[in-house]
Write a structure and sequence with these properties.
The structure is a homodimer. With about 700 residues, chain A is mainly α. Chain A has one domain. Chain A has 20 helices and no strands. The mean pLDDT of chain A is about 90. Chains A and B meet through helix 12, helix 14, helix 15, helix 19 and helix 20 of A and helix 12, helix 14, helix 15, helix 19 and helix 20 of B.
Amino acid sequence: MNLDDRTLIIILALIIGTTLISLIYAFFLKGQLTKLKVGNSKIEEISSYIREGTLAFIKKEYKIIAIFITGISIVLALLGFIPALKNAEGVGWKSALCFILGASFSGLAGYTGMLAGIKANSLTASAANTSGMGKALKMAFSGGSVVGLSVVGFGLLGLTGSVLVLYLTLGDLAVVGQVVIGYGLGASLVALFARVGGGIYTKAADVGADLVGKIEAGIPEDDPRNPAVIADNVGDNVGDIAGMGSDLLESYAGAIISALTLGIASTVYMGSNAALFPLLIAASGIIAAIVSIFIIRLREWKDPQKTLNIATYIANFIVLVLAFVFSQLILKSYKPFFTILVGLVIGIFIGFIAEYYTSEKFKPVKEVASESNTGHATNVIAGYAVGMKSTATTIIVLVSGVIISYLLEGMYGIGLAAVGMLSTVGITVSVDAYGPISDNAGGIAEMSKLDEGVREITDKLDSVGNTTAAIGKGFCIGAATLTSLALFISYALSTGLSAINILEPLVIVGLLIGAMLPFLFTSLVINSVGKAANKMIDEVRRQFKEDPGIMEGTSKPDYAKCVEISTSAALKEMIVPALISVLTPIIIGFVFGTKALGGLLVGALASASMLAIFMANSGGAWDNAKKLIESGKFGGKGSEAHKAAVTGDTVGDPFKDTAGPSMDILIKLMSMVALIIGPAIMHIGSLLEKFF
Amino acid sequence: MNLDDRTLIIILALIIGTTLISLIYAFFLKGQLTKLKVGNSKIEEISSYIREGTLAFIKKEYKIIAIFITGISIVLALLGFIPALKNAEGVGWKSALCFILGASFSGLAGYTGMLAGIKANSLTASAANTSGMGKALKMAFSGGSVVGLSVVGFGLLGLTGSVLVLYLTLGDLAVVGQVVIGYGLGASLVALFARVGGGIYTKAADVGADLVGKIEAGIPEDDPRNPAVIADNVGDNVGDIAGMGSDLLESYAGAIISALTLGIASTVYMGSNAALFPLLIAASGIIAAIVSIFIIRLREWKDPQKTLNIATYIANFIVLVLAFVFSQLILKSYKPFFTILVGLVIGIFIGFIAEYYTSEKFKPVKEVASESNTGHATNVIAGYAVGMKSTATTIIVLVSGVIISYLLEGMYGIGLAAVGMLSTVGITVSVDAYGPISDNAGGIAEMSKLDEGVREITDKLDSVGNTTAAIGKGFCIGAATLTSLALFISYALSTGLSAINILEPLVIVGLLIGAMLPFLFTSLVINSVGKAANKMIDEVRRQFKEDPGIMEGTSKPDYAKCVEISTSAALKEMIVPALISVLTPIIIGFVFGTKALGGLLVGALASASMLAIFMANSGGAWDNAKKLIESGKFGGKGSEAHKAAVTGDTVGDPFKDTAGPSMDILIKLMSMVALIIGPAIMHIGSLLEKFF
């Protein structure tokens, strides 16, 4: 069955309708949260500082992003006027508009989610204070849901909207597929800034707050006397909520775009049907998220782990049912359904593997904790080895997924597996965002000097959040690898390359440079955290020294100054990595040609995936080894082993929260840039390829 | 000019003659060393312990290697009887014999070099005691020369001898090229054991000696009361001398074999001439090493740095002159000469880059030292970032070399560049081995309680050795990358693959698994060091506890027990990594086919190169940051910064001395295995490839 034009347009409109329902639901939930009164002046005061700090950062960050976006969109638009690029549809003013739309919607999703998150922080703290676990859990879950629904709502609305408008004006799906890549590029660029900028921000504040506050001044974590404590909290919002959200929004958009491109080229199915299918799966995921969130909110839960699990199960079940229906209805085959299933299953497996290597329940973390007994170095070495080892099973699961989905549906199958993995992203982000919200609620409870019992509730909420965070990170990496792979295949398709032969020297050269980039990028990002943290340390020391009243609790520290320092440092430091990610594919492409650029993408994909898995799991293992020791094992709090474990945790912080997650974006952004410029290189030609 | 058979055979015989001269000179120098009397009973006693310990390790190690070698050679020989493999010349009894020869000669070179090294250790210490710098330098240099001359002598003798015998019996150079790969595989396998086993040994002993002796018992480094001190010294011999020697012997053999294979397939030159050229370059390198060592030994030098530099300059100059002559004479073109030049130049550049990132004279190490002021974690993070950053320039230099040599001579040019880089390996190994010899001489001086002034001389000798070690490590990595690349190209040639297309899913799957392996391998090796070190720590603690006389200096510690522990731990732990390196290519190849195996090789090549560069330079930076602080900067010895720097140094130890150097072998060994089994897979077919 080939869909006629009218049916196609109606279905696209229905998908847009679904995204609108998702956004309406998100704004309804957000409205509910906004209406609620916190009812505790101390919490409100703290919360207002965090809110101000976050907005100050976002405002500055978005200004810098706007400059980048404007510059790139002008270049994209102007490229369209070059006669040689008349047929390179990836560039031109239409693509530039998509690019602006992708960037704006990603920004909007991050902004909406973050505001809801901040409000939910204080409501969760306050609910834990007045009504207990059930209510607190509901607040945290609601906040997370707004983030999740905004990410998928905005993400798919913009994408499907672009496809519909472009199809109505251009009439040719193949051209639409090329132009709409601009949307993915826009989302990628914002994600890079959110992840890298947010990551540098949050770790600089964290390290600064810890090193001077906890170690030098001897005051507890989240003590309101610590000038950097608000910046630390702001960092959690911008890094863990907005950063994570835009990372997954980008994977989501990227996976759909690549499956769409591969679908259009399908020789097995009618192009329009195959292109529509991933969009329908994404819409199914949105429906699944809405229904799941709706069901969970019907009654009050007490057990956070169970609640999050049930939400996830419901969503997965709905997606699978709908995927089966659409697979039969649109593509008349069970095979596309199985590729979706493969994607879902490997996403879950990779999450479990991440949990195994980073949870204190299992052997790896116990070993890292036990190695802390022989000192700082052995702790560091053990955590390092755990992360490296975790690459093995993760990669084996990933490649199994690639093999099975390829056997089912060829290249298109790999694209579908990525879409399948990301189809439940609405609920994944909701569950992921729940973590930092609970964590921040705990911080606010501490800062507001609420009862011990309150902190116990938020700690219980948060402990579940730690597991979801580890699983979520594994999921982000798996999604990024699979998406980049699908984008890479789309790249070859769009540049008409039927083979990228690693026996050709330029391909090998590209591959080696590509494999090197993630190492360089990591080094830059980690250095940036160090530099920013040092500035923060100096500022906190200065405040303690110049105003002894702060430590006595008689005068208020200058929170805004610390926020300001983290903000400018993070924004300044994120520019070079951003430029490297955008410019390297352009330079390699125009100097050495499309094949070398293909090599670059694969090299970067391989090494960034390994580094991302390694750094995320090493970081998680160090973190939980420290927590295990703090719980009284292997010497307990204050022992020499604990000091060693703190070192490991501090080493792991930039690993798992800054450099690691940046790897995901790096490879997706590079693939997007390649996808945009590939056809342009083909038309113009490269500088040196002819000599080889 | 096409060489007639007779000329070819004469030239091969002349090359063999050169290698014999090199070996005669090596044994002459070794004889001179052996004849010399140490003349100090304390030194002789210590030296005899080291000698015994080394021989005990070597004996056990060679036993295990012999089992592996026997098993693999039987498999290789039996494979030749499979009818389907009648035309796969890489397997069969001839190849098995080459394999045994390669393993034996590599073992012989390591054994000879090590014995000379041990003798030179004590002679250097004794000379520093009785005659001063000039004589001590001469002893250390002589010891290093024996190692260098044995490596190139044995390496090229076995290889050229095999080529000659095979050519005389088979008559077809193309077949000879395939059979002789067995020689490379044998050398690779021994190198893996020497590097991994030696690396685990040396670091377990080092960490064990330091943690209990220096930190717990508070006795200085190299104190004879420390039971692990002899094991530590044995480790330096087996890891830094035998390990490094067999690593480079393997690169040397691998580079020549791949250039030979590529030369035979040359369409520009006559196959026999192109195949002969790399052998002639290697022979030129041997002549260069002999002449250079001879000239240096004509008079007594005082300045170690100057001496080593002059030796290197002379050797480079001679190689270049001879390369120019042979290029014109044999290939009638200046281009092959330039590829040799390219190889030499990038080898030197990579060495310089390693020096920049790891010498206390430059900014990176200063920064690591300065970051030690804020604690253990910031020191670790800074060192980590330095290593990662160093991948950028190193890879850019490497790929520039690949590009230029390809433009000059195509794939053959890449092979020649590898040969060029390794042509001066005779003198490189001599200079490299000089480092651990001087280091050990210092240890012996300390243990024998010689004057302060003696230690000053050996420290001065050793400080030059540190620079040469960093440069040498960079060189090993560059050589390994280039050699593996050349072997990879030979692999494609031998399996008749004209394209390995990364758009094919099996190639991507192979590539991802390949990129993962070095991470898994590193994790295993690092864990092994930890496990072995823990056993050593327990033993040293036990000895101190059970016999208080040891600390009082009244009773002798049980050195042999510590040697025994390091020996069994190292040998036990090296088996799994060895199996992984050998079995993975076989499994991937026979299950997914030759293209997937090609992907595996490239993925491993890319990620192992990055990890090798990163770990070597991070390790070097941490080491020298500690030394910089110990020299009085940034707080000096005993400060908090110093403790942090010690942590970094301890983390870096398994990085730079165990895992890092193992990467080089891993990729070369995998390439060799692939090269051997590739044609067999082609003939038999793979299990799953047909489904893709």
